[in-house]
Amino acid sequence: MQLNQMTAMIIEDMDAMRNIMVEQLRQHGFGRVLPVENSRRALETLEHNNVDIVLLDWIMPGGNGIEVLQTMRSNPQWHSIPVILVTAHTNRDMVTQAIKYNVSNIIAKPFTAKTLQARVIQALKAERKNLFEQLAPKDPDELSSQPLAADINSILIVDDVPDNLAYLVGLLKDDYKIRFAKNGASALKICQSATPPDLVLLDIMMPDMDGYQVLKAMREHPQSDQIPVVFVTALTEIEHQVAGLEGGAIDYLTKPIQPQILKLRVKNLLATVNLQRDLQANYDNILAMAKLKDSVEDIVHHDLKGPLIAISAMAERIAQDKSYPKELQTKINQIEEMAQQSINTISLFSVLYKIETGRFQLSPEPFSIHNIIKRILNVMHVTFHHKQLLAYQIPDEEPNQEFYVLGDPILTYSLLLNLIKNAFEAAKMRTKVAIHFESNNKMVKVRIENTGVVPEDIRDTFWDKYVSSGKSKGSGLGTYSAKILTQAQGGEIELSIDDLQNLTSITVSMPIAKH
Questions:
Q1: Which domains does the chain carry?
Q2: Taking the model in full, what pTM does it have?
Q3: Cα–Cα distance list, 197 to 174, 192, 223, 362, 460 (Å)
Q4: Distance (Å, whole) CA 143 – CA 497
Q5: Which tens digits make up the pLDDT trace of 46-89?
Q6: Confidence of residue 109 (pLDDT cuts 50, 70, 90)
Q7: How far apart are CA 12 and CA 55, in angstroms?
Q8: Peptide bond preceding 455: is omega within 30 degrees of 0, i.e. cis?
Q9: How far apart are CA 410 and CA 417, in angstroms?
Q10: CA distance 274 to 98
Q11: Sign of torsion over alpha carbons 282, 287, 290, 292
């Protein structure tokens, strides 16, 4: 990977943060770094430059980062460019949206130059990398750049007086990893190293380089600009405190130090550092789990769907041999249908996930909804033969009266299978399940009607996910998936309950196919 031949674009509305990130990426070796301040300029820059990676702020005036990400993912020219979201926001919905549009990584502000470098390299390498290699990186620097909340915090103490150093080290060494420096130059070397401290306790009055100069140099260097600094000094005048805080220190403690006050201040400040680490870890976990889900789905499809397709195909070939007895041919047809059901179930989970995350693309085609329902009823008659149910279609199919709809036949099979199976399960012994058809110029309506009514306690949540009643092994996905799959095909679905006649009806409306 030749970074000096690559172009990075930074989209950040805050000048200071944008300049810091530009400097950090240049120091990491990028040949070109293109800074822009808003989403409009970002899209213009993409139009006129070959960009290899984008670092994107979430909240910006005149449009947020997700709009840029959405536009990039819908443009064939830009859709594969790695995008790292850089944000100080903790909204889980934001993370979910970013994952939906295939964000490469998320960095929580504030961050160190090392973290930025590791995440950028990881995003560039991961474009075609196996997921499990991403989750278990071999590079030690990559591993150390992903901090864990359980790590012991490190503190750098800077003071030119040995007794002061010894005193502060003694107070804090039992709870933290302590490093120390006797002058400003040594302190800067540690802060700008590959392993900077989490917090700096800095004296002001030192020879060669005083504390103000050290702080200024830290804030000007991308590796140390985000490290929190607390001045610990004998200077008590208000103007010194103001100068320190204006320079970027987050606290100011005067000597002689009160041990209890020092420990509490340090504890509280590091709690903020750890909170930011936890936030970054949370982003990483959410992102990793989303990618892992995609990977598991790929494995399931490859390892389960393939053999089932083979079973279905073999059963179909055997069924074509008319030399077998009729009873055996019936069972072979059932094997084929059940294999097809399993294939559809596997596909269903993948499709539901894509619909829920906004990544589903419908490729509609015309098909006979009569044929689908006939296949389902054949299976239901076998599965529920013990209930002696009367199942029929109204009106029956006639040679020139077949209802064709426009949609996905596999998804339609899945949703109708769930609904008709529910109707057979709910119907009382020796009652009926009726399938009614009607159409107008726009829609074909299929109404599934059975005896028995939906329990009152789940009527308001009937279409919600994981809602089930009276089934010890029910997943609660049947009606939810039926609704989602219908709507994804431009259709509508409706529940109707008649308590007086003890009937439940579900009507599925699908776009009619124009001949």
A1: 3-144 (3.40.50.2300), 154-257 (3.40.50.2300), 362-511 (3.30.565.10)
A2: 0.45
A3: 16, 9, 11, 52, 55
A4: 58
A5: 999 999 999 998 777 666 788 888 889 888 889 889 999 888 76
A6: confident
A7: 8
A8: no
A9: 10
A10: 24
A11: negative
